[in-house]
Amino acid sequence: MNIAEIPGYISLLMYRLAALILVVIMLIICADVTLRWLFGISDGAIDMTFSGGIEMVRFGLMFAMLLAFPHAVDKGQIIVDIFTAAMNSRYRDILDGIYLVLFGGLAALLCWRFTDAAEMARLNAEKTQDLQWPLEWLYGPAALILVMVALQAVLAGIRLLRHREHHQEVHV
């Protein structure tokens, strides 16, 4: 494996972790619904409900989406090709490359804002409402993931601009 393949390998691992998080989210939802159902049919005699399920699902979904982005950012963009149908593939690749580089810039800006939010949360000792998790534990890793999103988007954009590969796309 050469050094250029390392970001792609890390992105694939992050993608698989996102899938695992989605399975965990599904299990949390099933457990929460089942335990609330038991509580309801037993008129409160069986109280094994837990608080924080909604927070776990919300932040789990945030991480699942963020972790999936680096691997999926250059895979199968859906494009409505009304304006680009007549263009040759090289010009479309250039447009896609520009888009991916700009998307990488957006991810870098989001990274900066998440880093700033993590620092503010640390300084103010902000916590989540139900679970009382420090918000810096959530915002800091999100910022690191966004570094990978930015890196993968910029690398994919540069590959397209340098005509190293043809962009995979689905035309609608």
Automatic annotation (TrEMBL):
The UniProt keyword set, sorted, is: Cell inner membrane, Cell membrane, Membrane, Transmembrane, Transmembrane helix, Transport
- Entry's Gene Ontology molecular function annotations: transmembrane transporter activity
Annotated transmembrane regions? 12-36, 56-73, 94-115, 137-158
Q: Which domain of life is it from?
A: Bacteria
Q: Provide the membrane topology annotation.
A: Multi-pass membrane protein
What are the GO cellular component annotations?
plasma membrane
Residue ranges annotated for the Tripartite ATP-independent periplasmic transporters DctQ component domain, each copy included: 25-162
Q: Where in the cell is it found?
A: Cell inner membrane; Cell membrane
Do you know which InterPro entries this protein is assigned to? DctQ
The main place the protein resides is membrane
First and last residue of the signal peptide: none
* Keyword set includes Cell inner membrane: yes
Which family does the UniProt entry place this protein in? Answer: Belongs to the TRAP transporter small permease family.
Which proteins does it associate with, and in what oligomeric form? The complex comprises the extracytoplasmic solute receptor protein and the two transmembrane proteins.
User: What is this protein for, i.e. what is its function?
Assistant: Part of the tripartite ATP-independent periplasmic (TRAP) transport system.
The protein here is known as TRAP transporter small permease protein
* Native source species: Parathalassolituus penaei
What's the source species' lineage?
A: Bacteria, Pseudomonadati, Pseudomonadota, Gammaproteobacteria, Oceanospirillales
